[in-house]
Design goal:
The chain is of the alpha/beta class. About 40% of the residues lie in helices and about 20% in strands. The chain is built from 13 helices and 14 strands.
Length: about 325
């Protein structure tokens, strides 16, 4: 029996979130709806231009780990911070969620990563990320016993930007598969897919990755097509299991010839879409590691995503466990 349901690996980032108008994005050459990698100088410039902001521990895979723990799952996390104030905030927040986190901090230079997130009136988020200490994550940070004890090891596609992280992920995949476990990834962002399309496809087709999460735009980008049906057939052929999210249209789960359509949960007010995909993965993987049907997994994912987009910040303030009970989903998981 595994000690952890899911181990997530990602860029340990503190999000700095502020609202803005679309004109602010164009005036500052920010690509809307994307994750833009920036250097320290631009990070300082954008921070100086931000309006009132909220600081919240984030990072895609960190959000997923927190979501899994919030549903009652056993989660672990690998990700690098510096020994500075933001690093201490990140460590406190993820451990307070009940997530195992023992990655050693990396001095104080480079500093802990931060992402300036600008949220436009439509709820769309545009991220400007300085990776800082994240780039120091490497094979020495792998805890082999934790990998072997995790039912699923999950990593974010964004980790393909820092070079040493690739080595760590491949080592984790080797350990996981030798222990009879599975490996999952999220494609993260269409621009991330553009940068690493060939490598992502190789990870899937080689069996290094078993389970893939993508949104519609990422799936289309992966196969360089505008034909969504073709993209769905292709991703189903290239990996064991895929979950493709469709925003307000829900999600499609694919496993071989099996295809399950999941309806989105009703949302009264979209406040901030930051973390929507991360929380979908959390709900889905929680259900998956509990042995639930693909439909149940998808419903849990859509519920978690719906909750997080109705607030500012990427980690739900509302209890995911309580929400699942209200919707009857937690009862389904426990029976």
């Amino acid at each position: 029996m595994s000690r952890y349901d899911v181990l997530t690996i990602g860029n340990a980032i503190v999000d700095i979130i502020a609202r803005c108008e679309d004109s602010f994005l164009s005036d500052n050459a920010i690509i809307k709806g994307a994750m833009n990698l920036i250097d320290a100088e631009r990070a300082e410039l954008l921070y100086s231009k931000m309006g009132p902001a909220v600081e919240a521990s984030g990072g895609s895979a960190g959000n997923t780990a927190a979501g899994i723990a919030g549903l009652g799952g056993r989660a672990a996390y690998f990700g690098k911070v510096a020994d500075d104030q933001l690093g201490k905030i990140f460590q406190h927040d993820i451990r307070a969620q009940g997530v195992h986190y023992a990655t050693k901090p990396e001095g104080n230079n480079p500093p802990t990563a931060r992402s300036m997130i600008f949220v436009t009136p439509d709820g769309e988020r545009s991220m400007n990320t300085y990776l800082g200490a994240c780039v120091e994550l490497g094979p020495n940070d792998v805890e082999p016993a934790v990998v072997a004890a995790s039912t699923v090891t999950y990593f974010e596609g964004y980790l393909w930007d820092p070079p040493r992280a690739k080595e760590a992920i491949l080592e984790c995949a080797r350990i996981a598969h030798e222990a009879g476990r599975e490996v999952s990834m999220t494609l993260s962002d269409p621009f991330c897919v553009d940068r690493y399309r060939a490598e992502f496809l190789d990870l899937m087709r080689s069996g290094t990755v078993d389970i893939v999460f993508a949104n519609k735009q990422e799936a289309l980008s992966l196969y360089e097509t505008e034909d969504f049906e073709l993209a769905l057939r292709s991703i189903a052929a290239d990996c064991k299991l895929a979950a493709v999210t469709l925003s307000e249209e829900g999600a499609i789960i694919l496993r071989g010839d099996e295809r399950v359509k999941i309806e989105a949960c009703k949302v009264e007010d979209v406040v901030d879409t930051t973390g929507a995909g991360d929380l979908f993965a959390a709900g889905f993987l929680y259900g998956y590691t509990q042995g639930r049907s693909l439909a149940d997994c998808g419903r849990l994912g859509c519920l978690a995503a719906a909750i997080v987009i109705q607030q500012i910040g990427p980690r739900p303030m509302e209890s995911l466990q309580d929400a699942a009970v209200r919707e009857g989903l937690l009862e389904a998981v426990l029976t």
